[in-house]
Fold:
Amino acid sequence: MSNFRQLKPVDNFYQNNLFYPMPTVIISTLCEDGMTTCGSYSLVFPYYIAGKDNYAMLLECRNSSNTAQNILRNGKCALNFIKDDRKYFKEAVRLGFPGKTPSEKMKDCNFELIKGQAEGDRPLILKDAYQVIECTWNEELEDGYKSKEHIGELEGVEPPYNNFNGITSKFGCHFILTIDDILMEEKYADELKNGLKVGSFPPVPVDYGYHDSKNFWYKKFKGFLPTSEAIANSNANSVESVMYCAERLETNVKFTKEACEMYVKIPRPFMKAALLQIAQIAEENDISVIDKEAALKIAEIRKAKK
Ligand SMILES: Cc1cc2nc3c(=O)[nH]c(=O)nc-3n(C[C@H](O)[C@H](O)[C@H](O)COP(=O)(O)O)c2cc1C
Structure:
């Protein structure tokens, strides 16, 4: 006998049928009159993470929300990740209450707003966020821009609907948001650069959505400190296995043993693709033999490309 009970998924299954840990994000958008307004969101996830010509996030929201209406209108938003602090979470819950106009919500807003760094007319960002992603809606995907015809229809949109970008149901909307830049609080940017330790992580609240109509549940960061678990076989590649892979690539570029030593930590499933990319950069830069010096130069080029 297993210890599971089978549940039938219902609307909003992520909070009604699951304990689903999510980030707490305040999304700032630009209203028609140029004012910045803020709404609370958790269904915000990385979407294009590699192998495309841009990086993107996915947002799932109510199509009548101020946030959705503003994104449909001008495409710009900032995803502000808040730190774990009772006063911030209280404000997130207040900003998450539906049916308020931007001016009603923003007149008492506790978050301090400042200018972001991406170009063009943009919403302000939260000064106290630990990270902010400035984004532009990719309205081309699935002809998402056609959803603009429904701006102002706040009582439910009639079909047809898109599948994944724009208005996707009577009350729902999905946005694929191209990442214009990532703003990271200085001290956490340093931690990312210098290698992570237990104390490197920003204190983040983890929320579980509305499990009843009275309370919005979340977990505080205190007592919930990050810890690490060594990745099995993370050092499994011997220099010989890297050389074996390098020698069998479809390229004329050669790798020296010294260079291969620099690649032993690349996880095995990604080894071939990584070496091919390295060889391709070498070809583009007229390098026929990748020795340690060339490997360092290529590493710089790869870093700049990212
Ligand atoms: C922490 C938190 C997370 C939320 N996440 C979402 C979400 O991911 N998608 C959504 O449609 N509504 C979400 N809500 C509800 C919205 O915040 C709510 O619809 C609100 O009215 C949106 O504000 P806006 O109309 O100013 O955009 C969340 C509420 C809270 C408090």
User: Anything to note?
Assistant: Residues 24, 37, 39-43, 60-62, 65-67, 92-93, 96, 98, 105, 207, 216 surround flavin mononucleotide (CB under 6 Å). The domain at 13-219 is CATH 2.30.110.10 (Pnp Oxidase; Chain A). DSSP finds nine helices and 15 strands in the chain.
